C-alpha cells in the first residue's frame, strides 16, 4: 500500500495505513511512504506483526512528533512505538520535533550532574521505542537528544543506520546488533551513548556495536553507563577517534 500526503496514494497518513492492517495479520505488509514530513505519533500494536515501512533512499520520508516525557511518560513519548513482532523499517527518518535549550554549565563533576537533572525533564522525548521481537532497520536515521531510542525488549538488528543523541540515547533491555551504524553525539556537558538495563547474569540481553563509528562534537563522550545492575555492551571493530573519553565507561 502507498501513503502519499498529496492524496495520490491509498492513504494520506501512516496512521490510516496501519489501522487498515487486519488484527492478527500473518503476511508481510509493505507500507511505502512518499517523500515529506509526517507529523504523527504512531503506534503499531502487538496484534499487527509483519509490517514494513519503506521509503525512497533518495527522498527519505520523515516521521516527527513533539511528544515529551513530562506529558506522555518516557517510554510512551516516542514518535514511533513498535510493539509487534517482525517489524522492518527501510530508508525512514524518525525525529523528535521539539527544540530544547542547549545550555549546560561545566564547572565540576557535581555541577555537571546537577545540571543534567535540572534539564532532564525538558529533554526526555523518544524518537522510537521498539518492544517487539525480531525487528530490523536498514538505512534509517533517528534523531533525538536524551533517550533517542528505547531499545526495549526483543531481538533487533540495525544496519547502515544513523543515530543521534546526547545522554542515554540508546537504552533499555533489548538484545540488539548494530552493524555499520554511525552514533553521533551532540551538544556538550555529560554525554553517554548507552544505558543498558541488564538485571542479572542470566538475562539474555545486551547491545553489540560492530563496524560502527562514534562521532560527535568536542571530547569526553562515554560509551555507556550502568542503568541497572548487569549491563552488557560490546563495541567491536568500531572507529571511536578522540571524541570518546579515554576511560570509556561512566
Automatic annotation (TrEMBL):
Pfam families per the UniProt record, alphabetical: Pectinesterase (PF01095)
InterPro entries reported in the protein's UniProt record: Pectin_lyas_fold (IPR012334), Pectin_lyase_fold/virulence (IPR011050), Pectinesterase_cat (IPR000070)
EC code(s) of this entry: 3.1.1.11
Keyword vocabulary terms for this entry: Aspartyl esterase, Hydrolase
Residue span, Pectinesterase catalytic domain: 3-250
Pathway annotation from the record: Glycan metabolism; pectin degradation; 2-dehydro-3-deoxy-D-gluconate from pectin: step 1/5
EC class of the enzyme, as a word: hydrolase
Entry similarity comment: Belongs to the pectinesterase family.
Protein name per UniProt: pectinesterase
Organism per entry: Brassica napus
Amino acid at each position: 500500500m502507498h501513503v502519499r500526503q498529496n492524496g495520490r496514494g491509498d492513504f494520506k497518513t501512516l496512521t490510516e495505513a496501519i489501522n487498515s492492517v487486519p488484527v492478527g495479520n500473518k503476511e508481510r505488509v509493505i507500507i511505502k511512504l512518499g517523500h515529506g514530513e509526517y507529523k504523527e505519533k504512531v503506534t503499531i500494536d502487538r496484534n499487527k506483526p509483519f509490517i514494513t515501512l519503506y521509503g525512497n533512499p533518495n527522498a527519505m520520508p520523515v516521521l516527527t512528533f513533539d511528544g515529551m516525557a513530562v506529558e506522555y511518560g518516557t517510554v510512551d513519548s516516542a514518535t514511533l512505538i513498535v510493539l509487534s513482532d517482525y517489524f522492518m523499517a527501510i530508508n525512514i527518518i524518525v525525529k523528535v520535533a521539539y527544540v530544547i535549550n542547549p545550555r549546560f554549565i561545566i564547572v565540576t563533576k557535581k555541577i555537571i550532574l546537577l545540571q543534567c537533572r535540572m534539564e532532564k525533564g525538558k529533554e526526555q522525548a523518544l524518537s522510537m521505542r521498539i518492544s517487539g521481537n525480531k525487528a530490523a532497520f536498514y538505512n534509517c536515521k533517528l534523531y533525538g537528544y536524551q533517550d533517542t531510542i528505547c531499545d526495549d525488549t526483543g531481538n533487533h538488528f540495525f544496519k547502515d543506520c544513523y543515530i543521534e543523541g546526547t545522554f542515554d540515547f540508546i537504552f533499555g533491555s533489548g538484545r540488539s546488533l548494530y552493524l555499520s551504524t554511525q552514533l553521533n553525539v551532540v551538544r556538550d556537558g555529560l554525554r553517554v551513548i548507552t544505558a543498558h538495563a541488564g538485571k542479572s547474569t542470566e538475562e539474555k540481553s545486551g547491545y553489540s556495536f560492530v563496524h560502527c563509528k562514534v562521532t560527535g562534537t568536542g571530547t569526553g563522550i562515554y560509551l555507556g553507563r550502568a542503568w541497572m545492575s548487569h549491563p552488557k555492551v560490546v563495541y567491536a571493530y568500531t572507529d571511536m577517534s578522540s571524541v570518546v573519553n579515554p576511560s570509556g565507561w561512566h
